[in-house]
Every structure is written in C-alpha cells, then in structure tokens.
Design a protein that fits this description.
This protein is of the alpha/beta class and about 270 residues long. Helix content is about 20%, strand content about 20%. The chain contains 5 helices and 13 strands. The chain has a 7-stranded mixed β-sheet with strand order 8-10-11-6-13-7-9. The longest helix is centred in the C-terminal third of the chain and has 25 residues, at about 225-245. It is globular.
Amino acid sequence: MSATAEIGIVGGSGFYSFFADAGAERVEVDTPFGAPSSPLTIGEVAGRRVAFLPRHGERHQFAPHKVNYRANLWALRSVGVRQVLAPCAVGSLQRHLEPGAFVVPDQVVDRTYRTGHTVWEAEGPVVHVPFADPYCPRGRDALLGSASDDTPLTDGGTLVVINGPRFSSRAESMWHAAAGWSVVGMTGMPEASVARELALCFATVCCVTDMDAGLEGEDGVTHADVLEVFAGNIERLKALLLRTIEAMPTGDCTCHHVLDGLDLPFALP
C-alpha cells in the first residue's frame, strides 16, 4: 500500500473532515471484519503522517451500536498507524464538568452489549490482553501537554460507555453519577479494547456537550443539542489535535508489546 501513516485520528459526532490540504489522499482499505466507516484520508500534519477516519461515516450514517470498530482500527493499523487519538462527544455526570469542557479520561466502564467486541474470535488459542489502564500513557501526556488557555483539559476521570443509540434514563444517569464516574458516551467501547487487542496506542479526549439527565434540575438530552454544542467546539478540538500530533512521541511504547509471547490464531497487519 503506497499511502502510510503513523498517527490515526478517529473523528466523533460532527467531526467528518480533518485535512484542509486538498492534497490529502483517500485510501480504500479491506479488512477481515468488513469495510470501515469510510475510506481513510491520509496526509501530512506538522511533519507527521496522519490518517483520518470519521467514526460515524462521512454522512453520520452509522449509529454508535452500528459502527464497525474492529474494521476501523484494523484499517488504521494496516496503513502503519500505531498511535490513535479518538475524540468523542459525551454527557457530563458531574456538575463541575459543563458543556464545552474537555476531559482526558484515564479509566473506562463498558456497559455496551454489542457484537464485535474482540478481534480474537477465530478458533485457536485464546488471547487475553491487559486492560487495567485502558489508555496509552504517552498519548494522554501528549494531549494534556497540548492544553491551552482557551482549551483547558481535565486530567483523569472515568468514561462510562452505554450501548446507545438512546440516551440514559434518569435512573441510569443517577446511578452512573453516584458511582463517581465523570462522563457518559456511546462510542468509547469496544473501541479502546479493540485498539489494545491490536497493540495500538490509544487515547481519547471527551468534549462535554450536555449535562446528563440524572443531574438534578436537568432536562433530557437530545441529539440536536449534542451536535450543536459539538459544532461550536470543533475548531478548538481540531486545534488541540494539531498540537497533540506535533507533540506525539515517536518510537516504541509498552502498548505495542501487549501481544508479545502470545500464541496468536492469525497475524496482524
């Protein structure tokens, strides 16, 4: 494959393009798990080769539970990507995290019940990967070091991922908040765990778009509200990602070695 990249960006709701340069190349990729959400767009940013993929498709045609997370991450790895930044839109579970805030979580809780949770479904040796710390520490450090006066970042917190496509009931939201979790979204899993299974560095930054329904005095959340707030913050998010790409370390990482010594049923790209 002629077009290669070292860093992958997975765009979230309302984030369908990244490159302003018309010279970026669109690349079709086949994977063992079917087609990714869209062709990859590969170009150069701050001297780094970057592949961009809109998580929900170029027309937002894939709901969270219909996103082919395995194909998306396999496609990125197949063009050489080893570091992935995956921003997402989330609701706040804590009063101090208001719409427009950005959170770099260090933990995740998976409450999804989708198919396609693992790439290791083929018959053969069982593959277990460590997931105690789900996000790459170097990726998180690069994000946190790229904060600015107009885009401060909250360091740490727990992202709880619900199945979608519906939003939480008030009781569910109150449960999540009472557990001390920070934000709630629909796309962070199995994205993070599949990335770990593919020995990819993976980090996320969450853009708070609403106060979730369980917070006292809050109304229910609507999709239109989410897209409106995310659109109002997209330029800040892009600027943050551009700074992070420039700051991303090169070379080896412990994330790349989670499969070392394991008897894999098939080879990775």
